[in-house]
Amino acid sequence: KMPGSRLALLCLTACCVPQRAGAFASIFALRTPLLPTLAGRTHVQLAMSRQQAAPGSPAIVILPGFGNAAVDYTNPFGAGFETSISYALQQRGFDVTVMPLERSQWFNVLWGLFTLSFWLGTVTPYEPSYGWYVQTARDTITAAAAKERGVIVIGHSAGGWLGRAALGNGADFDADIRAFVSLGAPHSAPPVGIPGVMDMTRGALTWTDEKLPGVFLAGKGVQYVTVASDLIAGNGAADRGTPNKAAYDSYRLVCGAGDVPGDGVVPLQSAHLDGATQITMQCYHSIRPPRIDDSDPRAKWYGSDEAVDAWVAPLLVALPVSAK
Known about the structure:
Elements: H1 4-14, E1 35-36, E2 41-43, E3 59-63, H2 85-90, E4 96-98, H3 116-120, H4 128-145, E5 151-156, H5 158-167, E6 177-183, H6 204-211, E7 223-229, E8 232-233, H7 243-255, E9 261-262, E10 277-281, H8 308-318
Helix pairs in contact: 4-5
């Protein structure tokens, strides 16, 4: 058994996955644009033509990942609005709102320590550990939907599975949801029985994937786009501190296997939903840190200006403005 204090620390610092996986020394070659691979899955190259949403397109609500704050999506590392995912999407014609969130609010996860379900590993996303996030997400989505042109919900990292929980069964709150997009989100918990590996959400991710599986709201007109990366292959035999070793450790916590490809934090196999439009590119998981060279793999993430067109393009195809 794991001591309570250590378990609480792991759940707080991981919540699903760490947001930083170390420094990287090389970047992999990009793949051919729009090259079909598995059924429903497409590899894309980052260098794509600039996309533009039509006037009256649905508004976008961004749900931050674990450990992130709203400012990371509007002024990352104090580098200016022009470097943010919000700016990139705004320049493509979207009205963008980021869910209000302070970094310190993630300590709310520790309220779960006072619930029996936390210790039993049967937490749901609506209990104290994550219920505060789900409610804030719903409030933000509802406010954006009041503009009466629909909403596209974008969840980064843990914001992806928490976004699915926020949307719920489609009847939990009144909002015209047109699409759901996840960026590097861990959508499934690791299998049970692997030493040192468990659902770090203490059951909340497991519950979400079991009760709200795949494209759960597709029947209600919600389009699903899952965006993942295969930039970095995990390698348990690599030297500690190398990108491949860091990825191995992170992937193993997420899916139970470390020797798989992913975005450096979340493995590819965990980041797609069955039935969704699945986009696989080559970029890093987390927001670009300051003062790094353009050749560093961390220089491009899902929300970089060079990357967003790769998933905005299929989103616009799947979601015509006149859809509803």
